[in-house]
Amino acid sequence: MSAGVPEGVPEFPPGFLWGAATSSHQVEGGADERGRSVWDAFAEEPGRIADGSTGAVACDHYHRSAEDTELLRRLGVSAYRFSMAWPRIVPEGRGRVSTAGLDFYDRLIDGLLEAGIEPVPTLYHWDLPLPLEERGGWLARRTADLFADYAQVAVDRFGDRVLRWITLNEPFIHMALGYAFGVHAPGKALMTGALPAGHHQLLAHARASAVLREAGRRVLLTDNLTPVEPLRDEDDGDRAAADAYDALHNRMFLDPILLGAYPDLGAYAAAGAGPLEEAVLPGDLDEIEGSVDALGVNYYNPTVVAAPGPDDGGLPFALPPYTDRHPGTPTTAFGWPVVPRGLYDLLTGLRRSYGDRLPPVFITENGCSRDDAPDDEGRVADAERCSYMDGHLRALADAVASGIDARGYFAWSLMDNFEWAEGYTQRFGLVHVDFDTGERTPKDSYAWYRAWIAGQNRDSPR
Ligand code: IFM
Asked: CA angle, corner 231, sides to 229 and 236, nearest 5?
């Protein structure tokens, strides 16, 4: 597919938000002008990041936010999802507030509003202030209260201009990769001992939600969700493993909010699921239930699950390549399967599971990585990304046509950035970033998305 105007663009509901997303640690840089986070310390440990890089400079968005706002304005988006760095606003994680940090987000928000773009901040996208990690991080219940204090600081300062707030980004991925498997910061490999880090994030979300609602703001939690299927439909072991995986990845972070209870994690008992029961205190689930006004959904791919083998560390599942069940499925540079229909399956599956309890949804991330580089004329021809977005947006349109109340879509990402443990080796941007010079080059997908948005109704946001 070329970067021309997409054909037959389906109409989305009036007021649907068209956006792009980033996160603080992945784009901001300006590390000397904020407190240290877990990711600073983690990336400095040899061998943690694929290319040995850090997020100290990243896209230097901290010093180039006006230029990036202009890129968003020219893209034609109606909303921008970014995250606030907790260590930039509250450098030690509690106590002293940084005026310079607040001023930075003031400038960003005001610039966005002047450009006619709704700011949609995420309060926490994995960059925990390092002093809090040294006191237990998300394994410590107290972190939930400190997060609510930080939410109060943010809403006091920005609540007059920001309506929609996302509390946390992808608590499952943060728990699993950061605390269970140790491949993300803070690098702990506790296996099921990580479960309290999930519960404390949900508690933090609920307490911050109460603060934001008290200020009359709307609250989202963004989950990374994946439709799950067994490797072999007829195999009882694979089906049980798929259920166990679904309970952990999806339902552990949805059921408490939408149903007021954790799913059955009995399959994890052999691996030791007890820590979760110990972490959940009376009253916690009452606080968590109903704590969102809308759900943020990050969708990248479906997951195929098989019965575990002896090398699966006592966990009740194994994760074979998606292509073991669906040979020939194309993959991104990351190796993730490209399955646009999975977005439709995911959203309609959520409605089947939660019925009327499913709130409106915003797709808060969707995108693909690719080995992008400018050609001799300086053009970045990323036809696969255009095709990826086209397929996913059409699947989303089908979901909307089937009755799903979807109210926005945010492309991940506005620009290439620090892709966590992969460093700068995985490029997800609509805009190419030269990490030596900081130079931004809009890719073909940027023009493609601009054309797609231009074909849509741009009523004021709901
Ligand atoms: O870059 C990440 C983002 O920080 C969280 N969701 C998935 C993206 C791609 O891996």
From this structure: 90
Host H or E run for residue 183: none
Catalytic, 170? Answer yes
Ligand 1 centre from 419 Cα, in Å? Answer: 7
Instruction: Give per-residue burial for 359-388: e unless 16+ CB within 10 Å, then b.
Output: bbbbbbbbbbbbebeeeeeeebbbebbbbb
* Residue where the block lists tokens 């879509």: 409
Residue of 412, 416, 424, 426 with the most ligand 1 atoms within 8 Å of its CB, for mutation: 412
Question: Ligand 1 centre and the CA of 224: distance in Å?
Answer: 9
CA distance 114 to 197: 39
Instruction: Report pLDDT digits (tens) over 76-118.
Output: 999 999 999 999 999 999 999 999 999 999 999 999 999 999 9
Active site residue 365: yes
Query: How much is the pTM?
Result: 0.97
Q: Chain centroid to CA 20: how far? A: 12
- Domains delineated in the chain: 17-454 (3.20.20.80)
Which range has the worst mean pLDDT, 165-179, 268-282, 387-401?
268-282
Q: Whose C-alpha lies nearest to ligand 1, atom 2?
A: 419
At 21-43, the pLDDT tens digits run 999 999 999 999 999 999 999 99
